[in-house]
Amino acid sequence: MEQVLNKHKLYYKHISKASAEIESYISDRRYGKVKSLKTRWHKFNNLAMGGIEPNVIYTIAGISGSGKSSFANSLETDLFELNPDIDFVVLSFNFEMISSRQVGRKLSSRLNKTTRELYSGDPSARLSSTDLQLIKEEVKKINNYDIYYVDMPGNVEEIDNTINDFRRTKAKDKWLVIMLDHALLTRGQMGDSERKVLSDLQKMFMQQKKVGITTIIQLSQMNRDIEDNTRITNPALHFPMRKDIFGGDSLFQASDYVIVIHRPEILGIQQHNYGKKGLPTKNKVYLHFLKNRDGEVKVLQFENNLKYNRIEEAPRGDPAAPVLKLNT
């Protein structure tokens, strides 16, 4: 799938080459030579072609406090624990948080301690020596994961150059998973609008996803409209829509999956509208698949365990945890 780029012309190939590629891909999927990277969420895997796919762009959006960063942080680590037979590497652009705090979130999830507890935010309840020993043991495990962080925000060209350099030096012959938290923190040139920067970023990502085996997972923000009182008081407008995502047109065009992580509870919504049904909101997190290039658009319901930086699947068969088809 890798293409040779030329400054003066675009690459072209005969349909027979594309046919051979997809025939080989179908066969390799059939016999397990090519697999998706499984996540901890079975409902997500079932809806998204088995998990995280190669040569695909995922956009995960949400309002502040919805849990999108915790979702991505958990995903980043889970991929290594659940897919030990697949050779891949993660390049994570952390423009919102410093990487040490990202590791802190991983420890929170693994040790069932809030970050406040981990950082001894309450002077009267400091960690014990046993806690510190457990943290050291978990850090040793985490250090074995092939994850590299970029803390300093950059512009589109700098991100592109960093990916190209990383692919040559660290990810040669490996599946490269690129994570960006979040897209709107990408720096622009003097005079560039946020929408132009976002559009340029998507064009670059569309090129990068076609090089070798590459997956891109980017986080983004929602417009404030979804928090407006007229939306909150009108049950028909509870669900997030395409227009609620900042720069939705360019993101939708570039992305193979667009997923909104939504916690209606933090907006004061006591019952999440779904057709004639009402869905519970207390301690619930919903994943709204607004775009699924090769599948259905649905809403998945999860349990909120964000104090430990996790969202959880309810037990299978739980009638309060349905997979819901989205009205379109």
Give a description of the structure.
The protein is built from 10 helices and 12 strands. The radius of gyration is 21 Å and the shape is globular. Helix 3 packs across helix 4, helix 4 crosses helix 6 (129-142) and helix 8 runs parallel beside helix 10. Strand 4, helix 8 and strand 5 (214-221) form a beta-alpha-beta unit. The chain has one domain (53-325): P-loop containing nucleotide triphosphate hydrolases (Rossmann fold, 3-Layer(aba) Sandwich), CATH 3.40.50. With 328 residues, the protein is α/β, with parallel strands linked by helices. The strands form 2 sheets. Strands 1, 2, 3, 4, 5, 6, 9, 10, 11 and 12 form a 10-stranded mixed sheet that branches. Strands 7-8 form a two-stranded antiparallel sheet.
Calculate the mean pLDDT score and round it.
88
Distance between the termini: 33 Å
- CA-atom Rg in angstroms: 21 Å
Number of helices, counting only DSSP H or I runs of 4 residues or more: 10
Detail the poorly predicted runs.
Answer: 318-322
The CATH architecture would be 3-Layer(aba) Sandwich
Q: What is the ordering of alpha helices and beta strands?
A: HHEHEHHHEHEHEHHEEEEEEE
Number of domains: 1
The name of the CATH topology is Rossmann fold
* Beta-strand share of residues: 15-25%
Largest sheet: 10 strands, mixed
Find the count of extended strands (DSSP E, 2+ residues). 12
Structural class: alpha/beta
Shape: globular
CATH class equals Alpha Beta
